[in-house]
Amino acid sequence: MLYSAFSERPKHLDPARSYSSNEVEFTGQIYEPPLQYHFLKRPYTLIPLTAEAVPRPRYVDAAGNALPDDAPAAAIAESVYEIRIRPGIRYQPHPAFARDAAGRYRYHALTASEVAGKTRIGDFEHTGTRELVAADYVYQIKRLAHPRLGSPIYGLMSEHIVGLKALGDALEKAARAGPDAVLDLDDFPLAGAEVVDRHTYRIRIKGKYPQFIYWLAMPFFAPIPWEAEVFYAQPGMADRNLTLDWQPVGTGPFYLAENDPNRRMVLKKNPYFHGETYPTEGSDEDRQVGLLADAGKPLPLVDEAVFSLEKETIPYWSKFLQGYYDSSGISSDSFDQAVQFSAGGDPQLTDSMREQDIHLITAVAASIWYVGFNMLDPVVGGLGEDRRKLRQALSIAFDYDEFISIFLNGRGIPAQGPIPPGLFGYVEGAAGLNPYVYEARDGNIRRRPIDTAKKLLAEAGYPNGRNAKTGEPLVLYFDTMASGPDAKSRLDWMKKQLDKLNVQLVVRGTDYNRFQDKIRKGNAQLFEWGWNADYPDPENFFFLLYGPHKKVGTGGENAANYDSAEFNVLFERMKDMDNGPARQQVIDAMLEIVRRDAPWIFAYYPKSFGLRHGWLENVKPNLMANNTLKYRRIDPALREARRAEWNKPVLWPIVLLVGGLVAVIAPAVIAWRQREKKTA
Amino acid sequence: MLAYILRRLLYAIPILIGVNLLTFALFFVVNTPDDMARLQLGVKHVTPEAIERWKIEHGYDKPLLLNAGAKGSAQFTDTIFFKHSAAMFAFEFGKGDDGRDIGNEIRTRMSPSLAIALPVFVIGLLVNITFALLMVFFRATYLDLWGVVLCVVLMSISGLFYIIAGQYFIAKLWNLLPISGFAGGIDGLRFILLPVLVSVVAGLGSGARWYRTIFLEEIGKDYVRTARAKGLSEIRVLFRHVLKNGMIPILTGAVVVLPLLFMGSLITESFFGIPGLGSYTIDAIQAQDFAVVRAMVFLGSFLYIVGLILTDISYSWVDPRVRLQ
Fold first, then answer.
1. Do residues A57 and A77 make contact, with C-beta atoms less than 8 angstroms apart?
2. In chain A, which residues have their Cβ closer than 8 Å to the Cβ of B104?
3. Which of residues 82-141 of B touch A (CB under 8 A)?
4. With contacts defined as CB-CB under 8 Å, which chain B residues touch A8?
5. For residue range B127-152, what is the model confidence (pLDDT) as tens digits?
6. CB contact under 8 A, B176 and A19
């Protein structure tokens, strides 16, 4: 049994809706999309999960004629993915599949009174299972367009999957016509997803969209059995929170045996899980640290995982140290207790952690934090040479190396561009530095001196921080959601950075809603923002700077409203290319443009630090995979021994307390007796 | 008596409508339905169409208070306020923005809240009264002086400190009780002990000082002098006569909070991992889930009104001079 914690209860467990990491932590173990990421291989590699092979797209032109793999993107009308799933995969036990002796579904025609006594799935006496079929995948793709589900990727996918938008419109019309009616998705065809045979289905994508393959590794594209929808749609079910959004039905290694998100959620081994085994391939380093010790063993390696709700970091941390949780993150409160830095700047565990056989796990997240310039702003925006130099000067002045050291306890890497490490296109070392902000000196990468920034500022028309024409000081506005004492020191730091250039920074604090509104309307000047990768492809970061995705006007993800014609052309080329030297060349050109134009101050790539006890094995950070629970192994005997050793009750405080109470009460009793005698 | 209670309950209706309206106004001053939709849909890949769909699906696509486009009573009934508030008077709370039934959540979470709040209330009341009576018994001695000093010290410390100190010393350092968690049935007792202990100690300073003041006021009255003149012991005077006559102000504070015990404690539940209504409310505020916030404010207001009625009734029981008309 594995013990873990979650700090925020998941909102959605329906794979069409769940997107947050705290939701995917559960759905990733229960649902199985056709593909998954290899647990050990880096760079991140897609491998089959329920599919027989990773599908390769087949391209066709507008007339439906087959095109070669290297056909130009403009000639491709559709990309066709044909996915064959392995036969014999079965769903977890669930009452939706239960049948009586005559073969009829036991629980598909329940009345409200029959549901009355049921509060959880375990209250249904009978369960059943059935084989996973291709139709279940197609059914789920249709669900992405269901207006009552509100899938967060419907908007994006309707741009790519043939016919999904039309299906969404038809479903919306039907939902309005019958607000209480259950929509049977089988009555609504979807041109872009069809069943080929029992174990094969086909997805048609508009044009060329190579990144689609990564979506096939997310729970959005996991199968949903129609029986589950029919089961949960019965009267009285939703009133008892018996919904697919709350009680998942999947084929994965675990099923949700207990769902009390107010207290704990328990995943148990799916007795019908298909025979997946622990990976046998990995790097030499993986082998050395024992990550291949379980190679070839059947998964999952734990029978049960208990996730308890821990909203506060202090009890969570204490329980981890007591051995009641097998792994933990490190909050800023406990960072100094857990981690120290060597003379070379490498993070190391403190002695007390090492004594407890606790191990440190670090990984650079596939994320970036940046300070964005609103490119529509008359002061900092625009692609003119003077504005570029102003932004470059500010990029040098904001010393994020110092920021990482002061505010992140070293948990970050200064960013050199939009692409974080671990993704194709990122270049390590001096070759990958941002030459407008950094330089290679004495074999080290160093931020350019502040004098360079001052020179650039003067060339931009603000010598010594004043407008050369009017003599007025340059005042910039920074919009932020941050507030409170912690944020104050950060904001003071930001002001201090611009003080170096004699530029004034005015902080405009606001709440989340107002901040979003300002960004949407383009009313901000400077703002802080971040992005987590959806998939390990540079397109997922460059698209944040693609002109047609501007926030203002289109509502896209380009919050800086950067729109460079030469960048846009390169982006359109790069996104359709396969990884290789040609793509790297285009990426390098794109990096040069965004570094020169500096629509963002590339702040840092966050580094995640985690801890695990010595009894928890097979932990390797995989920032793309969300189904890694099946690889974990526990040594329960060692855990029990450590818990007993660490948590021996200390009884002397009770003795002391009783003694103290006696010491206080005794004189009181004596005084009372004396008073009584006196009265008498 | 029955007529009085009915009258008070009828008075409650405009109060509850007012509370509802105020909650509605305050909530929508800082949030728009679009904001709510964005928060629910997340920050990635959110399109204007997705926001519109969410609003339609959750009934936030109508005007807030007045539908100028409608005719007749529909001007008031075809609004977000009416659609989301009218059913509450029948205790139909509807669904939260996450699609889960609020009534079901309230029923589920009430017991954990009560499991903590009820023992804290009962034990706290007993401990506070006993401590206050002891200070009164030893009034004008060093025990009284140090008792008051202790009360002031206890009052001056933040509630959060008791929680953190309790968890650190009792649970982490001495391993006497679990740090946090919850379980149903008898197994849950070990999880309840620490939050109850911490809450009782945290409330001791203010409670005992207040009750001491009440008892000191009573102890100077004629009936106490008479009781002493009859030769009753000081203990008997205090615990029989003074306590009984001091019950009216004690009831004022105690009975009114009795129904609110269902609502739980925001901080205690959060730190000790108690899945009660307090943490439910906090979560809803953070998630901008108007349906849940509105339901919890409505429930809190209703229970407060019930508490006030119960206080009035209890007055008439403990003091025969009080008549409810």
1. no
2. 239-241
3. 95, 98-101, 103-105, 108-109, 112, 134, 137-138, 141
4. 283
5. 999 899 888 888 878 888 989 999 99
6. no
Span A229-236, average pLDDT? 92
- pLDDT at position B9 is 84
What are the angstrom distances between the C-alpha of B112 and each of A654, B8, B108, B180, B281?
A: 28, 30, 8, 13, 14
Residues of A in contact with B45 (CB under 8 A): 152-153, 155-156, 557
- The amino acid at residue B141 is T
Strand pairing category for A254-260 and A339-341: unpaired
Query: Closest partner residue to B42 among A19, A172, A672, by Cβ?
Result: A19
3-state secondary structure at position A375? coil
Q: Which sign does the torsion angle of CA A116, A120, A122, A126 carry?
A: positive
pLDDT in tens, B24-79: 888 888 778 888 887 777 767 777 778 888 888 788 888 888 888 888 888 888 88
CB-closest option in A260, A513, A679 to B35: A513
ipTM confidence score: 0.78
Quick check: A187 pLDDT over 80? yes
Q: Which residues of A touch B175 (CB under 8 A)?
A: 322, 647-650
3 state SS of A645: helix
For residue B231, what are the contacts with CB-CB under 8 A and spacing of at least 6? none
- Look at residue A582 in the predicted model and tell me its pLDDT: 94
Q: How confident is the model at residue B255 (pLDDT cuts 50, 70, 90)?
A: confident
Instruction: Mark out the alpha helices in A408-483 (DSSP H runs).
Output: 450-459
- Nearest by CB to residue A675, choosing from B57, B104, B234, is B234
Please state the three-class secondary structure of A185-210 as a single string: HHHCCCCCEEEEECCEEEEEEECCCC
Contacts of B172 in chain A (CB under 8 A): 318, 321-322
pLDDT digits (tens, 9 = 90+) for A303-350: 999 999 988 888 899 999 999 999 998 887 788 899 988 777 778 899
Per-residue pLDDT, A635? 96
| Residue closest to B194 by CA, chosen among B302, B307, B290, B272 | B272
Contacts (Cβ under 8 Å, ≥6 apart) of A466:
A472, A473, A474, A502
